[in-house]
Design a protein that fits this description.
Elements (H helix, E strand, L loop, with lengths): L16 H8 L5 H17 L13 H12 L4 H9 L2 H5 L3 H7 L2 H15 L10 H19 L1 H16 L6 H21 L3 H15 L1 H13 L1 H21 L4 E5 L4 H13 L12 E6 L2 H14 L1 E9 L12 E6 L5 E8 H9 L7 E2 L2 E2 L3 H7 L1 H10 L5 H12 L3 E5 L5 E5 L4 H8 L1 H5 L1 E6 L2 E3 L11 E5 L21 H33 L4 H11 L5 H9 L5 H15 L14 E3 L4 E4 L6 E3 L11 E5 L5 E5 L3 H4 L7 E6 L7 E10 L4 H11 L3 E9 L4 E10 L2 H12 L4 E7 L1
Parallel strand pairs: 2-5, 15-17
Antiparallel strand pairs: 1-2, 3-4, 4-5, 6-7, 8-9, 10-11, 10-12, 13-14, 14-18, 16-17, 16-18, 19-21, 19-22, 20-21
Helix pairs in contact: 1-3, 2-4, 3-4, 3-9, 4-7, 4-9, 6-7, 7-9, 8-9, 8-18, 8-19, 9-10, 9-11, 10-11, 11-12, 12-14, 13-15, 18-19, 22-24, 22-25, 25-28
Length: 737
C-alpha cells in the first residue's frame, strides 16, 4: 500500500479520446462505451473548423468535460451531453437532430447546459452591465439545477476545463473568472459534495488570484514531502496494528491536502503566531471500515492510541452535512505537540464524499442508481434557496445570499420538534427565526437555546435546540437589527426580510416625500409632474408613478438628478410641452435671436418680461400689432389666459451660441450676515451674471432676495438654483414671472 494516495492525472488541458476510454472502461460495458464514442464523433465533426483561443482544436474542451464526468462514473446520457454541450450554441445543431441521433434525454440535458451559456438580461440603470448579467446567469443556473442537477454537474465539468486553460486569456479576464470560480463554483461543488471538482477548482482559482502565494506554498509542500512520507508510514502502521488488535477490518491511507486548504490552514496558524514549520496537522489519515458501527469502534481505537485534542471532533455521521457528507473527524496528538487528523467512514460514505450528489447516477452492475428520495433530501437547501429567490429584489441580492447564507461554513441546530436546520456559522437565534418563517422573524421578541433564555445576538452552536418566543403585540423589526455592529442578523436572507418590512411600512411616506421633492425640482424648470410623467416612467423603467415616487422618496433616485436629466433632454432634443392651442404646421424659419417662429421668417422678436423664457423652456410666440412677436413660456399666465388665440403661434428654440437670457429668481431665507455675499459667490462660481438685485425684509427675521440673472440655458439656471437651495439659511428658491 502506498503511503499517500495520489490523484489520477488531472492535467487534462490537452485530453485525447484514449483518456476518456480509459475512464469509461472502469465501470461501463462495451456497448455503453460505443454509444459515448458515437457522441464524440458527432461533436468532433460539428466542431471540425473551430479552435479555442489557444489555437487548440475545440473538441478538446467538450472531451475534457466528458472525462471529468466519467471520473464521477456518471451514466451514459450525461457523458454524451458533456460531449455535445456546445454543438447547439456554436454549430447550429437543432434539438430535434440531437434527440433523433441519440435520444430525448440527451437533447434535454444539452438544452439545459446551452441555456446556462446563453443567458442575458438588460443591465440595470446605474450598474455594471457585465456584473448584472453574471449575477442573473448564476441565479438562472440554480433554477436549472432545481429541475435537473445533472445539468449543473456538466456545467461544473465545463468550468473545470476552462480553469485549466486560462493561460491564453488577458489578465483581467483571468482574474475575474478565477474569483467567480472561488466564490461560486468551488463552493457549489462542495455543497453538491463533489470533492474531486471542489479541490481542483479551488487550487486553479487560487493560482490566478494570488499566483505568488500559490507557488510559494507548492514549493514548501514539495520540499517537505519526504519528511511527511516518513511520519505517515509510521503513523499508518501504528493505527493499522491497533485496529487489527481490536478486531476491526480497515483500510488506512494517507491523504494529500490540496494547496488552497493549506493556505487557509496557514492563515489560521498565522493568527496564532505559528509558521508553516509548525503546521503538523498537514498529516492526515483516512480509515475505511465495513459497517457504520465500526466507525465509532475505530474512533475509540484512535483515541486510545493517541490523545484527542478537545474541541477537534465532529460527528458528520449522526449530523450529515447538507451535501450528504458523512464521516467522523478527529484530531489527536501522536507526540507531545504534533497532531494528526483522522477521518473515519465506510466505503459507501467515502464514495458519497468523493462523488457527492453525482453518486446517485453512478453505475453499478450496468444500471444507474437514481435514488430520488436521497437526492431530494440532500438538495433540500436548494429548495429553500429557490423559495427565497422569489422574494429577493434582484439577481445580485440572490448571489449575495448564496455567498453569505449557503456557501459559508454551516452550523446545524434543531427546532423543539427535532427538525434540523443548517445556518451559516455565526448565525443568531434571530437568523433562525427568519429561517423558520418570515412572520416568526417579524414577531420575534426573544429566544431560548437548550431551554435557557439567551440574547438575540448569541451565536448558535452545532446541536443547539432553539425555541423562538413571539408576541402578537410586537411592533415588528427594530432598525437595530440591520446594524452590523450590533450583531442581531448574520444571514443575508434575514437582512433582506427586515429591509422589505421597512420598505412596506415606509412606502406611503416615501410616495409623499418623493412627490414633494420631484414637484419642487420640476417646478424650477417650469414643468408639471403630470406633463412629464410618461417620459419619466419610460426613462427610469418604472411601471407606475407611485413606484417612481417611492424610489425618489427612498433615496434610490434624487429629484435633482431627475430634473437635470430632463433638462438636458429638453436642451438637446428641443422637446416641448403640449401646445396651448392647435396650430397649422408650417415651414420653420430661423429668427435673429435663435428662435424658430413657424411661418414668420425675419419677424422681429423679443422675450417677454413677464416670464423670461430660457432655452429648454417650451415657448409660444404672441404676434403683436406693431412690435413683431413676443416670446413667452408656454405655461405663462398671459399665454394660457389670452383671449386672442389667433395671435398665438408655435415657436421653438434654435441655436444662438454665446447668447444669454434674463431670468428672475426669488430666494427666501433667514436674515444673517453674509447671506447676500454667499448668493453672489454661487453666481460667480457658475459664471452667471447678476444684472439686478432687490432685498425685501419679511416678518420674523426672514428676507427675500430677488435677483435678475443672465444664463445660457434652463439647465444652467436649474443647476444654480439647486446650489442656492443648499446655502445655510435658505428656505426656498423659485423662478418667478
Amino acid at each position: 500500500m502506498t503511503t499517500e494516495t495520489p490523484p489520477r492525472r488531472h492535467d487534462l488541458a490537452r485530453p485525447v479520446l484514449e483518456d476518456l476510454r480509459e475512464e469509461l472502461e472502469r465501470y461501463l460495458d462495451s456497448s455503453a462505451i460505443e454509444a459515448i464514442e458515437r457522441a464524440y464523433r458527432f461533436a468532433a465533426k460539428a466542431h471540425i473548423d473551430h479552435r479555442r483561443v489557444s489555437g487548440a482544436p475545440y473538441i478538446e474542451h467538450p472531451l475534457a468535460a466528458a472525462i471529468s464526468c466519467a471520473r464521477l462514473q456518471l451514466e451514459v446520457p450525461v457523458i454524451q451531453a458533456a460531449l455535445l454541450h456546445d454543438v447547439v450554441e456554436d454549430c447550429g445543431i437543432e434539438h430535434d437532430e440531437i434527440a433523433t441521433t441519440f435520444d430525448e434525454e440527451v437533447a434535454i440535458l444539452v438544452d439545459g447546459v446551452t441555456k446556462l451559456s446563453t443567458l442575458a438580461m438588460p443591465p440595470t440603470p446605474g450598474s455594471s452591465g457585465e456584473e448584472e448579467v453574471q449575477a442573473e446567469n448564476l441565479r438562472k443556473m440554480f433554477i436549472a439545477m432545481g429541475e435537473d442537477v445533472r445539468v449543473v454537474i456538466v456545467k461544473l465539468a465545463d468550468r473545470l476545463h476552462n480553469m485549466r486553460t486560462l493561460d491564453p486569456l488577458p489578465e483581467p479576464k483571468r482574474t475575474r473568472i478565477a474569483r467567480e470560480t472561488m466564490e461560486i463554483y468551488a463552493p457549489l461543488a462542495a455543497r453538491l459534495g463533489i470533492w474531486q471538482f471542489k479541490w481542483e477548482l479551488e487550487d486553479l482559482a487560487f493560482r490566478w488570484i494570488d499566483s505568488e502565494e500559490y507557488h510559494r506554498i507548492a514549493g514548501l509542500v514539495a520540499a517537505r514531502r519526504a519528511t511527511r512520507e516518513r511520519y505517515l508510514v509510521r503513523l499508518r502502521r501504528q493505527l493499522e496494528d491497533a485496529l487489527s488488535g481490536a478486531g476491526i477490518s480497515a483500510e488506512v491511507s494517507g491523504r494529500v491536502k490540496h494547496i488552497y486548504s493549506i493556505h487557509e490552514k496557514m492563515r489560521k496558524y498565522a493568527d496564532d503566531g505559528k509558521s508553516f514549520d509548525e503546521i503538523y496537522d498537514l498529516l492526515a489519515l483516512r480509515v475505511l471500515v465495513e459497517q457504520r458501527e465500526d466507525c465509532y469502534n475505530a474512533l475509540g481505537v484512535v483515541h486510545s492510541l493517541w490523545r484527542p485534542i478537545p474541541g477537534e471532533f465532529d460527528d458528520y455521521i449522526a449530523n450529515p452535512k447538507p451535501s450528504g457528507y458523512r464521516s467522523l473527524h478527529t484530531t489527536s496528538y501522536w507526540s507531545a505537540t504534533r497532531p494528526v487528523e483522522v477521518q473515519i467512514r465506510t466505503s459507501d460514505m467515502d464514495a458519497e464524499a468523493e462523488f457527492g450528489v453525482a453518486a446517485h447516477w453512478r453505475y453499478k452492475d450496468g444500471k444507474a442508481l437514481a435514488q430520488k428520495d436521497q437526492e431530494r433530501e440532500r438538495l433540500s437547501w436548494l429548495k429553500q434557496l429557490l423559495d427565497w429567490q422569489g422574494d429577493l429584489p434582484g439577481a445580485r441580492e440572490f448571489v449575495e445570499t448564496l455567498k453569505s447564507d449557503v456557501f459559508k461554513d454551516q452550523v446545524f441546530v434543531y427546532t423543539p420538534a427535532g427538525e434540523i436546520k443548517d445556518l451559516p456559522a455565526g448565525a443568531t437565534p434571530l437568523d433562525f427565526a427568519f429561517r423558520i418563517h418570515t412572520d416568526i422573524g417579524y414577531s420575534c421578541v426573544g429566544a431560548k437555546v437548550n431551554g435557557r433564555l439567551v440574547a438575540l445576538t448569541s451565536e448558535l452552536q452545532n446541536g443547539d435546540v432553539v425555541e423562538i418566543v413571539t408576541s402578537r403585540a410586537s411592533r415588528g423589526p427594530s432598525r437595530d437589527w440591520l446594524n452590523p455592529a450590533l450583531g442581531f442578523l448574520k444571514t443575508h436572507h434575514g437582512q433582506v426580510k427586515v429591509r422589505q418590512w421597512f420598505r412596506r411600512q415606509e412606502r406611503t411616506e416615501n410616495v409623499r416625500r418623493g412627490r414633494e421633492e420631484l414637484e419642487k425640482e420640476l417646478g424650477r424648470l417650469g414643468l408639471k409632474l403630470k406633463d412629464v410623467q410618461a417620459t419619466l416612467l419610460d426613462v427610469y423603467h418604472h411601471s407606475s408613478l407611485e413606484d417612481l415616487l417611492v424610489a425618489v422618496g427612498g433615496g434610490e433616485l434624487t429629484g435633482h438628478g431627475i430634473a437635470l436629466h430632463l433638462a438636458s433632454m429638453i436642451s438637446s432634443e428641443g422637446e416641448e410641452a403640449d401646445d396651448p392651442v392647435p396650430v397649422i404646421a408650417l415651414p420653420r424659419e430661423r429668427s435673429a435671436i435663435g428662435v424658430y417662429v413657424l411661418g414668420a421668417p425675419n419677424l422681429l422678436t423679443r422675450f417677454a418680461n413677464c416670464c423670461h423664457p430660457l432655452p429648454g423652456d417650451p415657448i409660444t410666440a404672441y404676434i403683436t400689432r406693431s412690435r413683431g412677436a413676443t416670446i413667452h413660456r408656454s405655461d405663462c399666465h398671459n399665454v394660457i389666459h389670452s383671449a386672442e388665440y389667433e395671435r398665438l403661434i408655435e415657436a421653438q428654440w434654435g441655436s444662438a451660441p454665446g447668447t444669454r437670457y434674463p431670468s428672475l429668481l426669488s430666494i427666501e431665507g433667514w436674515e444673517r450676515v453674509g447671506f447676500v455675499r454667499d448668493i453672489s459667490t454661487v453666481m460667480a462660481d457658475e459664471g452667471i451674471n447678476m444684472v439686478g438685485m432687490r432685498t425685501d425684509e419679511q416678518d420674523h427675521s426672514r428676507v427675500v432676495v430677488r435677483v435678475t440673472v443672465e444664463t445660457d440655458s434652463i439647465e444652467q439656471l436649474q443647476r444654480v438654483m439647486h446650489k442656492l437651495d443648499g446655502l445655510r439659511g435658505v428656505l426656498g428658491v423659485e423662478r418667478q414671472n
